[in-house]
Design brief:
mainly alpha; 77 residues; 0% strand; elongated
């Protein structure tokens, strides 16, 4: 890859890849995907949420569900 890029661009790409914890190839893919993805206005809300959190890893910890009704369903007499 370095033979296709000038040394300064190659160095900047290496730094950005390290900053994001990716290989240089993965960084190039991420840059191209970001650049070539349609603007948010052209995508639905679900697609925008997915794109926003796509790089996160791990499982979402949901709160324990008890037999209590939701707070909105409890009325004072």
């Amino acid at each position: 890859m370095s033979s296709y890029l000038d040394p300064e661009t190659h160095a900047q790409l290496r730094i950005e890849a390290a900053r994001h914890g990716r290989s240089m190839e993965a960084e190039v893919r991420a840059i191209l995907t970001e650049r070539l993805t349609p603007p948010a206005a052209e995508r639905g809300l679900g697609s925008r949420i997915h794109a926003r959190f796509a790089d996160l890893e791990g499982e979402l910890q949901l709160p324990d569900r008890s037999d209590e009704p939701p707070r909105a369903a409890v009325f004072d007499p």
